Amino acid sequence: MDEIKNELFYQQKNGYDVINPKDRAALEDYAADYMTFLDAARTEREAVREAVALAEAAGFRPLTEDHPGIQPGEKVYYVNRGKSLLLAVGGKRPLADGAVIAAAHIDSPRLDLKQIPLYEDSELAYLRTHYYGGIKKYQWTAIPLELHGVVSLRSGETVDVVIGRDADDPQFVITDLLPHLAADQMGKTGSKLIEGEKLCLLAGSVPYAGEGSDRVKLAVMSLLNDRYGIVEEDFISAELEVVPAFPVRELGIDRSLIGGYGQDDRVCAYAELAAILETEAPECTAVCILADKEEIGSEGVTGMRSAAFERFMERLIGGTCSVQACFSKSLCISADVTAALDPLYAEVSEKQNSAKINYGVGLCKFTGARGKSGASDASAELVGYIRRLCAENGVLWQMCELGKVDQGGGGTVAMFMAQRDIDTIDAGVPVLSMHAPFETTSKLDCYMTYKCVKAAYDA
Ligand code: MN
Ligand code: MN
């Protein structure tokens, strides 16, 4: 009977029981490089900057407006308004035969400063925020925070702001109520535990010397003016993002896990990037997308719904065929994280179809909510192709679905790629505590996601 079972049943195995020695060693080096990237890329703009530096070092050059079309083996990149990045390596075959695209996003849930953020109350200065993406607000109190972003001055000059990154730099905190006085608060439901308007950064406490009102606010503004040359009105034209200050670390006694902020979806963004940086003259042109604005619906000029992607492809194609003809023959891996089965909260998952830590890259045929609403639902043929691709290239993979039926749901950029007539499937790293200020992934799954994208580029 065991023999027949072996033949007929689908059996999933822990990746560490089947990984070959070469990959076992390589995943540690890969994880170390990824952790360095993640630590330095705390915002979408920083992710672009770090990625461009790596791409330049690997021989990629900026795509010019009048580019005549990509040549076999040619390596180009395009930065869209500093917040999203597109890279390509020219294939041997013309783009009329389609491109192999991988699309991840580099924006992550965070708190943005409001446009008029600074105020003083009870001789303490605060910065008001408006959260970005889906967060559990209570997770953002009483943890060390940093401020990263840009301020566009009245002069037209743009100033980069980073407060809290250097070891001797001050950081910020959003205070929470002590348990001794939290009886009313603890009676509230989770979504009301911390109200959005209470997510205000403590920004200073020393009053400006002299008499009058708002002296602490004035002292804080004065220090900001000394450091960045900004006045209060300049906040109006600023994008200042509040992000967790935790360093990226190995987790677990066995060091098998990675803890850090923004792994959704910089973990897949890095996987794609690492894959395309090592791609030389593929069969079909390889395209790597690091998109912005996924966490708020892929809107905006730097989001995946933007025609900036068509414009990029048009320049690669260089008039050899229509963008639409290229899309209809293309393949897209929507590389975004998925929920890992958390044994502490197993009740929200259906075990048989959940992604498990250390079982490899998670393939999702569909995302969405309720009756697959909002999913692009990859075809059986496409899932079959990816399954074969993984098997033939030693990629450890698993099939997964985000949570129990009717438990909730989520989306990725997949549907915006499929709407373009591009065959698209979701594939990414399973994450524990997704969207928390400190997210957890496994080194093995990170590495296998890179291998999956690399196999697609090399096919
Ligand atoms: Mn994501
Ligand atoms: Mn997300």
Short description:
With 459 residues, the chain is an alpha/beta fold. The chain has 13 helices and 22 strands.
Task: Give an overview of the whole structure.
This protein has 13 helices and 22 strands. The protein has 459 residues and is an alpha/beta fold. The protein is globular. It binds manganese (II) ion (2 copies).
Strand content: 15-25%
Small molecules held by this entry: manganese (II) ion
Shape designation: globular
Q: How much helix is in the residues?
A: 25-40%
Termini separation comes to 38 Å
Q: Looking across the biggest beta sheet, what order are the strands in? A: 1-2-3-13-4-14-20-16-18
The assigned structural class equals alpha/beta
Taking the sheet with the most strands, its summary is: 9 strands, mixed
Which regions are unreliable across 5 or more consecutive residues at pLDDT < 50? none
Total helices: the number is 13
User: How many individual β-strands?
Assistant: 22
Round the Cα radius of gyration to an integer and report it. 23 Å
